[in-house]
Amino acid sequence: MAAQSIDLSAALKQHFGFNTFKGNQEAIIRNLLDGGDTFVIMPTGGGKSLCYQLPALLSEGTAIIISPLIALMKNQVDAMRNFSENDSIAHFLNSSLTRSAVDAVKADVVAGRTKMLYVAPESLTKEDNIEFLKTVRISFYAVDEAHCISEWGHDFRPEYRRIRPIINEIGTRPVIALTATATPKVQHDIQKNLGMVDAAVFKSSFNRANLFYEVRPKTANTERDIIRFIKQRPGKSGIIYCLSRRQVEEMAELLRVNNIRALAYHAGMDGNMRSENQDAFLLERVDVIVATIAFGMGIDKPDVRFVVHYDIPKSLEGYYQETGRAGRDGGEGHCLAFYSRKDLHRKKN
Predict the structure, then answer these.
(1) How distant, in Å, are the alpha carbons of 79, 138, 210, 307 from that of 274?
(2) Percent helix, strand and coil across the chain, each to the nearest 5
(3) What is the pLDDT of residues 121-161, one digit of tens each?
(4) Quick one: which of 66, 84, 262, 330 is 20 to 30 A from 133 by CA?
(5) What percent of the chain lies above the pLDDT cut of 70?
(6) Which long-range contacts (CB under 8 A, 24 or more apart) does 11-17 make?
(7) Is 274 left (phi over 0), alpha (psi -120 to 50) or beta?
């Protein structure tokens, strides 16, 4: 079906309940539906996922969405099922599934009930998955968090570099690559690696007018300042980033002692505990998550009102991505960073 003949605004309203598209969304979706490779650079909260979710619903076959984190996939699949009466509409294939669960997913895909299949890049490289996908009618491939492809991106994942050869093996279809952060060097690297140098590029403004940025000097009273800052925002959701796992644990404990509902999140924790803590935050059983940068990628909580950096961020690009988790609903977000020369020296060493 040619994109020109589809009433995209009506489809948006029908499937997602929105009246209007944001920014470049409509042009991106038309380009993809017309069969063009599409490269999307859009800030966190700009509505990237809709750019492949809506076309997947409107296309024949199943869209293959390559995504780096199990938590992110689960989050998106749950969200899609909420929009649809049919639970088979979206599935994921990753290492967390049992053999019988994998068989059930494959049966839904083969029967044509599934419009979106989320796969981790590691799962995509498995021989039996490649053989299975060769038998599937694929509408297009979406590569989410595409900066993971680039060695100059802030979250390099070597398995992402195998995506293009595998697409060629399964069967070429249009590709949409999406990222919230891409310097020209990273952008070129992504396009070259995915074999989409001729893709239409859509770049949105990165100015988030609803975010307020503040930097304060780090002092002996910083912990007390953070407690006061949170107490002035009772019941509001926020994220506090620390560089070390030990600091994360200590900060979460300090907040709890001061009657702030807070939990920790870092890569050293058991996977189930991480999922439980993430869900507690999403379901508002706690107000604050204290985390290393492992937390937040793809977390779709629209009403995060503040993001605090207790330690200096690892990079400006990473800082933009982390603070971008505030105010995704368009409401205000306060981004507070504490700075000390000592932290800077520690980071350089």
Answers:
(1) 19, 33, 29, 19
(2) 40, 20, 40
(3) 888 888 989 999 999 999 999 999 898 898 877 678 888 99
(4) 84
(5) 94
(6) 11/54, 11/57, 11/58, 12/54, 15/54, 15/57, 15/83, 15/84, 16/50, 16/53, 16/54, 16/83, 17/83
(7) alpha
212 and 278 in contact (C-beta within 8 Å)? Answer: no
Q: Is 170 helix (H, G, I), strand (E, B) or coil?
A: helix
Nearest Cα to Cα of residue 316 among 237, 192, 172, 215: 215
With CA atoms as reference, report the closest residue to 277 among 306, 256, 257, 302: 256
What is the Cα Rg of the chain in Å? 21
Q: Which residues pair with 333 in a beta bridge?
A: 211
CB 236 within 8 A of CB 326: no
Which tokens hold the place of 103?
A: 């068989």
**Cβ–Cβ < 8 Å for 96, 70:** yes
The helix/strand count (H/E) of the chain reads as 14, 13
CA 41 – CA 204 distance, rounded (Å): 6
What is the rounded distance in angstroms from the CA atom of residue 106 to the CA atom of residue 133?
A: 9
Sequence-ordered alpha helix ranges (H) in the chain: 8-16, 25-33, 50-58, 70-83, 99-110, 121-124, 127-133, 163-170, 184-193, 222-231, 245-257, 271-282, 316-323, 341-348
Name the β-bridge partners of 309: 241, 337
2: pLDDT strictly greater than 70: no
